[in-house]
Amino acid sequence: MRYEKCPLMEKCGGCQLMDLAYEDQLDEKQAFVEDNLSGYGPVAPIVGMDDPTHYRTKVQAVFGREYKGRRIISGIYAYGTHHIVPIHDCLVEDEVADRILGTVRNLMGNFKIDPWDEDRQTGYIRHVLVKRASYTGQVMVVLVCGDWPIPHKDDFINLLRQRNPEIKTILLNMNSAKTSMVLGPDPEKTLMGPGFIEEKLCGLWFRISAKSFFQVNPRQTEVLYDIAMKMARLKPTDTVIDAYCGTGTIGMIAASKGVKEVVGVELNPDAVKDAEANKARNKLANIRFICDDASSRLKQMANEGVTCDVLFLDPPRMGSDERFLASAIKLAPSTIVYISCNVNTLARDLHYLKEFSDYQVLGIQPVDMFPHTTHVETIALLMRNNA
Ligand code: SAH
């Protein structure tokens, strides 16, 4: 499969591999994973997508005006600048999300709603974040504004919804700070609908909210979680830890397989709130969540003499740390399933486990969650010798 080279490839910088045929992209990622990880264990062939287009269900855009004209544009900042590269239809972004961003641009023009000007601290709409749940089709729109209310607020919201009936909820996030963060720190205000959307993955319901992490490629997320579960070979007697659990996805799927107990550990209180709601929605009694730093909590558990049978960890790009890994070894799980979005930090952490424990890497499975980019997701299965 070969794609027309995206005309914005250099300016945008999001899709570094777009000029390669998809098969060649997969070969490149496979070679990258093997170069970095084959010293630890066998690397299986990468799982790619059948259709690697429009997979990204979380889309965020910065709003501004055309450099010379007055047209409202949305897109991303050119690397290292505050010049907006307009992105009005993108090969990897969800098509409904892109259509909604188009409606926002039109309505801003019609109602004379100025985009936020960070330097002058004038105008209104700064970014728009769109998330879509692929199973239900529900869409969340977050208006990130430097000032509020926008002119013709009610008409704007009604027309946005009318023209895009998939929209289930609209939220307001205030952000007038000079920052590169998209979302401001204060809680969102719900302008329409319930304030969240619902996704179904691996037979379970998950709530998606504005600030909690949720995988952005739902088609491959099911593939990823299925592989993680197969690797774990869960038994009804197992106690399981899901570290860096986000909204509880992996732990909840494990709980639904009928294990004895799952404990999820997550730092972001918004994500833990979603995880609690998900637990209730899925009527699962054998899972609980702890809002804490994973390393501190694992250390505490290890000091208390807690043990577990299976440990899932799915840390952010910076990976885990020595405190976490040293405590994980003390909890003595027979199986560790490490899900990683960064091969370099995964290699570092596998190196630590190789040096300081008797865990062995039995399998490494790359999954392509982000076609056309250099990112690759990897799952490593480790078992304790004589477990
Ligand atoms: N397993 C989840 C989330 C993975 S993303 C899923 O598949 O959806 C990584 C998560 O780690 C994020 O939710 C982030 O908030 C959380 N996190 C980051 N640093 C952490 C820390 N020190 N302790 C616990 N959780 C942390």
Keywords for this structure?
387 residues; alpha/beta; seven-stranded mixed sheet; 16 strands; 25% strand; globular; binds S-adenosyl-L-homocysteine
Structure description:
- The protein has helices at residues 9-12, 22-37, 95-110, 153-163, 218-232, 249-256, 269-281, 294-303, 322-331, 343-356, and strands at 58-65, 72-77, 84-86, 125-132, 139-145, 167-174, 189-192, 197-201, 204-208, 239-243, 261-266, 287-291, 310-313, 335-340, 359-367, 377-384.
- The protein is an alpha/beta fold and 387 residues long.
- A 7-stranded mixed sheet has the order 3-2-1-4-5-6-7. Strands 12-11-10-13-14-16-15 form a 7-stranded mixed sheet, sandwiched between helices. A two-stranded antiparallel ribbon has the order 8-9.
- Helix 2 (22-37) packs parallel to helix 10 (343-356), helix 3 (95-110) runs antiparallel to helix 4 (153-163) and helix 9 crosses helix 10.
- The protein starts with 8 loop residues before the first helix and ends with a strand.
- 45% of the residues are buried.
- The mean pLDDT is 95.
- The structure holds S-adenosyl-L-homocysteine (SAH).
- S-adenosyl-L-homocysteine binds next to helix 6 and strand 11.
SSE arrangement, N to C: HHEEEHEEHEEEEHEHEHEHEHEHEE
> What does the main sheet amount to?
7 strands, mixed
The small molecules bound here are: S-adenosyl-L-homocysteine
Distance, first to last CA = 44 Å
Shape: globular
Q: Widest sheet: strand order?
A: 3-2-1-4-5-6-7
**Contiguous runs where pLDDT drops below 50 for at least 5 residues:** none
Task: List the total number of helices.
Answer: 10
Beta-strand level of the residues, as a percent range?
Answer: 25-35%
Structural class: alpha/beta
Rounded radius of gyration (Å): 22 Å
Fraction in helix = 25-40%
**Count of DSSP E strands?**
16
- Average pLDDT confidence is 95
